Structures are given as structure tokens and as C-alpha cells.
Amino acid sequence: AQSVTQLDSHVSVSEGTPVLLRCNYSSSYSPSLFWYVQHPNKGLQLLLKYTSAATLVKGINGFEAEFKKSETSFHLTKPSAHMSDAAEYFCVVSDTTGNQFYFGTGTSLTVIP
Amino acid sequence: KAGVTQTPRYLIKTRGQQVTLSCSPISGHRSVSWYQQTPGQGLQFLFEYFSETQRNKGNFPGRFSGRQFSNSRSEMNVSTLELGDSALYLCASSLQGQGYEQYFGPGTRLTVT
Question: Does B42 touch chain A (CB under 8 A)?
């Protein structure tokens, strides 16, 4: 069975400092992994995805994530936080068919001016 | 390409009533998934349709049902509404197969009074 665990329910950073949002996954096969962002009262937007190509994945808005099979992790990072990054972030794994997504519980990112 | 659209965006219903939500996927996408998002339970998978057939189903009571039309548009119906059904209902469309990301609509905010 597939599952994801987002290790922090809430993260606060100062503007201009690095962002690290942690995600561990559980999968019996080589997974497809995604990070989505949700701004208040909006739908989800894809930030980046991993599908067994390069382990370091670059996404939109300066975000990137590294797939580490040995640690079963897919942490999301950004070198310098911007106020507009304040949102809810979801780590997602798909099943073998790609037809069903399993969402983490989300990490709320606050950016302090 | 137009994104995923959902109608209506906001809805207020009374306990015991029924409601139908609509989702139009991105052109060419044949997979449509529905999710319920609440502060307490997070994002929960309702069901997924592909080519008018329900392929996957989450753990929701039979009051929640859906269908997909030949043009891939999908509807979700909730009968005998309960206060706990108040939530943001998100629709996502996708090309089939592992590694394909889901594209989300803005959601329908349902309030049950």
C-alpha cells in the first residue's frame, strides 16, 4: 500500500531564508511522487513531480525536491522564501496505475516578513 | 488549454437535501477524480472515473455518488446531506497512467446548514 507522511504540520520561516518541507513515503514499488501547493480558498497547483528520471527535480517558483530511495524521502526545498510562498503544501504518491493519488496531511508554510 | 472548471463555486444547502456538483476536465483528459477537503480530515479521495466507468472508490457512504459522461464531464451527487458534508469538493483531471499529474479545479465550497 502507498502512503505519505508529512513530518511537519506547520513550518515558519523568515522571508529570504531557506524553506524545507519534509515528506516520507511508503511504497512497494518505484513510485511517482508529487508536490502540490494550495493557496487560501484555491484549488491545488502542481509544483513538481518525480517519475523515475532525475532524482533532483526542479519545479515552479524556485522549488525543487530530491528523491532519496534509501531514505524513502522526497523533501521540498527553496533557497529563499518569498511572502507569496505562504500556503499549504501537499506531498502525494500515486498508485501503480497512476489512477489514484494518496495525499499527505499537508504542511502549512508561514513566511514572516 | 482551458483548465479544469467546477460549478457552482459556492453552494449552501439544508440538511436532508441533495446536491449535484459538476466538473469539466481539461480537453483530452479522460480521467476525473473527486476529493473532499475538510480542516479535520484533510484531502480524502471520493472516486475516480475513466471513460464513463468508475475505476476507484474511496471510503465514503453510498450517499456520495458520481458519474461521467461521454464528453468526460463528471458530476458528483450527495443525497440526504448532513452537516458533516460541509467541505471543499475538488475535482481533478488527468491523462491515464502512472506518472501523470492531476490538474485540479478551484473547487466547490459546500455549506450544509
Answer: yes
Mean pLDDT of A80-100: 91
B15/A contact by beta carbon, under 8 A: no
- Restricting to A residues 54-93, those with a Cβ less than 8 Å away from any Cβ of B are 90
- Binary contact (A49, B103; C-beta < 8 A): no
> Cβ–Cβ contacts within 10 Å for residue A39, how many?
13
How does DSSP assign B43-57, residue by residue?
A: EEEEEEEETTEEEEE
Closest chain B residue to A37 measured between Cα atoms? Answer: B104
B23 touching A, CB under 8 A?
no
Contact (CB<8Å) A51/B104 = no
Reported as a single tens digit per residue, the pLDDT across B52-101 is 999 989 999 999 999 999 999 999 999 999 999 999 999 999 987 667 89
Whether A19 shows a pLDDT value over 80: the answer reads yes
- The cell numbers describing B66, all together, are 458520481
Q: How far apart are CA A50 and CA A29, in angstroms?
A: 14
Q: How many CA atoms lie within 13 A of B40 on its CB side?
A: 4
